[in-house]
Amino acid sequence: MEPPPGGPPDSKPPQLIATRPDSMATLAGFDKDAEFVFDEVISEGAGAGAGGRGGLSQLVMLSPTTEEPKVDWKRSRITVKPREGWQPDRVYRVELLPGVVDLRNNRSNESRVITFTTGAPVPKTVLTGRVVDWSTSRPAANALVEALLLPDSLPYRALADSSGNFKFGPLPPGDYLVSGVIDQNRDQRADGREAFDSVRLARGKTQVGELWAFEHDTTPPRITTVTVNDSLSANVELGQPLDPRLKLEPRNATVSVLPDSTPVKVTSILPKPLDDSLHARQPAKPDSAVADTTRKPAGVPVPPGAQRPVRAAPTSQLTGRPALSNRLVVRVGAPWKPGGRYAIEVRGVRNVSGTTGDVRGTLVVPERVARDSLKGATPPDTLKNEAE
């Protein structure tokens, strides 16, 4: 059965008209479902295919629970219940995320939170903060925020907004371990390899501040590649970001010619951003160096009514912490020999998680490299493109 043909198409998204139970209610012995009621029949498959969770369950966050909640479709209603049942004397938070669609694929951007208790006092704590992706020094849009209520480790979950900011609550009073997670697979759970940062808040504290998420790795760093940077330096790339507070001295590095292991003097070993700044290396040209097609060529008038395209402003980087880098620059006292092979060892390399180790690698110098250095003059950087 369908409506008769003709008339305007329905482009209005489904509207949320009721929630059950009432938010901030105290319901001792509650054993019914939490419900979100819409003004029309909604699609059972809304949100399917995202993050490893199918259908409407992708659009519902239930806290506190360690299990995936039971989410059912009942035409114009979404019902939610924990698989272990509602536990007594707890504060529950049921959040419906944007993304519900009707049978005509009209998508709702509305969200709603139901907070109620099964006998615990009515909650008042609201946590605020921001999640930052440390690898890019930019806000982490839609990051997962998890607050563990201590000592019971009851997990409450929410999502940050598009600017990485969150206002999370109301939650029961107590000590919290608050984490910001870059939820790459969108399963609304903190997985072992996902970047995160955490902070502990004492009872009564609500300002979380900035959480700078990064990948935590308990294994020591390892070299992935060693390439020529210029005639007197080499880039050492590692598989993990380095601790930005790491300070290495020339004595921490050993460079020797292969196969006879003749030592080569090391003059410095620095993280690449610091080496670039000390040696005044010019950064890559920005996009503005490319021909700007939005500008009017000289002598060509702009047609009446024509509108120039506007460039989108790039997302600004934050400067609360130094940028992460996974590269070191080793500088030596004598130019590299074209076609030569060098063994490089760096001791005491520490990753951003605090794990320290010694790294070893081999530098192979191309045949056509460093010819200008044989003249004894200060060599320009003519080797970058060839090394890359």
What does it look like?
It is a single chain. The protein has 388 residues and is mostly beta strands. It folds into three domains: 16-117, Sandwich (Immunoglobulin-like), CATH 2.60.40; 125-213, Immunoglobulin-like, CATH 2.60.40.1120; 223-279 and 322-387, Immunoglobulin-like (Sandwich), CATH 2.60.40.1220. Helix content is 3%, strand content 37%. A four-stranded antiparallel β-sheet has the order 1-3-6-5, with no helix packed on it. A four-stranded mixed β-sheet has the order 2-8-7-4, with no helix packed on it. A hairpin with a 2-residue loop joins strand 17 (223-230) and strand 18 (233-238). The longest helix has 7 residues, at 272-278.
Task: Briefly say what this structure is.
By secondary structure, the chain is an all-beta fold. Helices cover 3% and strands 37% of the residues. The radius of gyration is 29 Å and the shape is elongated.
Oligomer kind: single chain
Strand order of the largest sheet: 1-3-6-5
Please identify, by name, the CATH architecture of the largest domain. Sandwich
Q: What's the count of strands?
A: 24
Tally the helices.
Answer: 2
Which spans have pLDDT < 50 for at least 5 consecutive residues?
A: 48-53, 285-314, 372-388
Can you give the helix content as a percent range? under 10%
Instruction: Please compute the radius of gyration using only Cα atoms.
Output: 29 Å
Strand content: 35-45%
Count of distinct structural domains: 3
CATH topology of the largest domain: Immunoglobulin-like
What is the succession of H and E elements?
EEEEEEEEEEEEEEEEEEEEEHEEEH
Distance between the termini: 63 Å
* Global geometry: elongated
The description of the largest β-sheet is: 4 strands, antiparallel
Query: What structural category arises from helix and sheet content?
Result: mainly beta
CATH uppermost class of the largest domain: Mainly Beta
Mean pLDDT: 84
